[in-house]
Design a protein that fits this description.
With about 100 residues, the protein is an all-alpha fold. The chain is about 95% helix and about 0% strand. The termini are far apart. One of its GO terms (molecular function) is phospholipase binding.
């Protein structure tokens, strides 16, 4: 009889421990799922930010801003020169004849 009582108590304790373990494990899974979702959203966001930063660095590496300034300066110099030549031609055609 004592053996039967001991085995019954032992099985009850094991069942109780297994039941409490299962409940806490389900709660961990719920938190784990939310944490995984949050982590994946953060990872996608940081990946997008890093990609955009890399593109900006590549654009700065090409020095497009400096090239645009140089192109503007050269174009204004050429236009100013040819406008001066045109002005001289018009002046000489009107007043020299």
């Amino acid at each position: 009889m004592n053996k039967l009582l001991f085995i019954t108590v032992l099985v009850a304790l094991l069942a109780h421990n297994a039941e409490s373990f299962r409940v806490s494990r389900q709660a961990e899974d719920t938190e784990g799922t939310m944490a995984k979702f949050t982590d994946s959203v953060k990872a996608y966001y940081s990946g997008a930010v890093n990609t955009a930063s890399e593109y900006l660095e590549k654009i700065k590496g090409l020095k497009l801003e400096e090239k645009a300034k140089n192109l503007y300066t050269e174009t204004t110099n050429v236009v100013t020169t040819y406008a001066g030549i045109m002005q001289d031609q018009i002046y000489h055609s009107m007043y020299k004849n």
